[in-house]
Structure formats: C-alpha cells, structure tokens
Design a protein that fits this description.
Blueprint: E1 4-8, H1 12-24, E2 28-32, H2 35-45, E3 49-53, H3 61-70, E4 79-83, H4 88-97, E5 101-104, H5 109-123, H6 126-129, E6 131-134, E7 137-140, E8 145-148, E9 151-152, H7 157-168, H8 176-184, H9 193-209, E10 214-220, E11 224-232
Parallel strand pairs: 1-2, 1-3, 3-4, 4-5
Antiparallel strand pairs: 6-7, 7-8, 8-9, 10-11
Helix pairs in contact: 2-3, 7-9
Length: 233
C-alpha cells in the first residue's frame, strides 16, 4: 500500500516535476491545480500528506491549510507549505497557520524528498517502514501479515485493507462511505451494510486471537469506525 501525497501547485511544470520525483521515490501522488480542487481531492482520497503552494487561484495554500486544520477529519493531516517567500515573517505565518513544515522556492528534489520523509517519520512512522503498530496489534504492509498478542491473524483482502486504514490513523473515525471509497473504490456500487459485514469478520478474527477478547475497534453510531485503546468485548 503506497503512501499517497497530494500536491497542489498552479505551475504545471513545477507540479509535474514534484510528482515525478515523489513517484520515483516510491510515493503515490494526487495532483491539483488550485486550492478548491485540492480540497475536493483531499475529501475524496484522504491522502497521507499534502504539499501546498502558498499562492494558488481560488484558494491559497495558507487558506486551505487553515481550512484543513479547522476540520476534525484533517486536523492531524501532515502539511508542507511551498513558497517563493523566504522572509522569517512569512515562514512564521505559514507555520502558525498550521503547516508542519515550510519549504522556500527554489528547492532541490532531494530536499523535498528528505522533508517529506522527515515529516512522515514524525507524524506517521509506520508509513516509512511499512510496519504499523497499535498496542498489541502489528501489521506488515509488505508481507501482508497481521499479529495480535503475538498470534498470527488470518484476514481476507478486504479485512486486511480495512484494518490497515484504521491503523494508519488511530483515533480517527472513518465513515462507512469513506471506507467504501477507499477499500472498494470510487464508482463501485456497494451498500454501506457491506462495510459492517467485513468489519464484523475483522473484529471476530481479532477477538479469536486475543485471550482476553479485547477489541481495539470502536463503532460510532451514525459515524463509522475507528481504532482506539483495547476494550473488553
């Protein structure tokens, strides 16, 4: 499962260059030409990190950053601001608005990749080494294996992907609709009840592996599912 990065920049050449270098380094990319388009793509695809140019039409990178930080579902989303402005006051404004990092233009591809990796290590370390851990639960994304209390857990492809999504963002509530889009894909007609069926299978498998019948998945009525501290079933 690739780490997906959304890049928003109204300069086509800069956008394509960043996309190329990120993809060469093993990341997946989503491209936007303005702030409003970027916001829509973030809502649709839930990227793992976003890179926003300060000056964009329709909505600036700073305004978009402020909007993302005001929403519960994107409050913790890693954000890098790009700008030709290099004054300390501009950097302070970008960081105070909620950006995690600020890169002044021009910059080298090597610097961009280094900053992205550094931010991912700080915010979501599992996305770097492809090992996700939460309390006694561990997933290897490369080997597609799951262990719970040091016991192997056998999961189907859909259950594995559901658990991976939950573990990438502990404490985040995913709606059933969002899980359908991320696991089954856009444009595929599947009833939301399908998510409940696969989530039930996932929870049963985890319960079987736990001697204490601990369940780390929480159901939020009219909300969805999230991964939290273990609780006894």
């Amino acid at each position: 499962m690739k780490t997906n990065i959304l890049i928003a920049d109204d300069e086509p050449n800069q956008l394509e260059l960043m996309s190329y270098n990120l993809e060469t380094s093993g990341f997946g990319t989503i491209k936007a030409r303005d702030g409003k388009n970027a916001l829509q793509l973030i809502e649709d695809h839930s990227p793992d990190l976003v890179i926003l140019d300060w000056m964009m039409p329709n909505m600036s990178g700073i305004d978009l950053c402020r909007t993302l930080r005001s929403r519960s579902e994107t409050k913790q989303l890693p954000i890098i601001i790009l700008s030709a402005r290099s004054d300390d006051s501009d950097k302070s404004l970008g960081l105070d608005t909620g950006a995690d990092d600020y890169i002044s233009k021009p910059f080298s591809p090597k610097e961009l990749i280094s900053r992205v990796n550094a931010l991912l290590r700080r915010s979501r370390p599992g996305l770097i080494n492809n090992i996700l851990e939460h309390e006694n639960l561990k997933i290897s994304l490369n080997e597609m294996t799951v262990t719970y209390f040091d016991k192997n857990v056998k999961l189907g492809p859909k259950e594995f992907k559901l658990l991976s999504l939950l573990m990438e963002r502990p404490g985040h509530i995913f709606s059933r609709g969002k899980l359908l889009d991320l696991v089954w894909g856009h444009g595929v007609y599947v009833e939301e009840r399908t998510v409940d069926v696969h989530m039930s299978r996932l929870r049963k498998a985890l319960k079987t592996a736990s001697d204490k019948s601990l369940d780390p998945i929480r159901t939020v009525r009219d909300g969805g599912y999230g991964l939290f501290t273990n609780k006894t079933i």
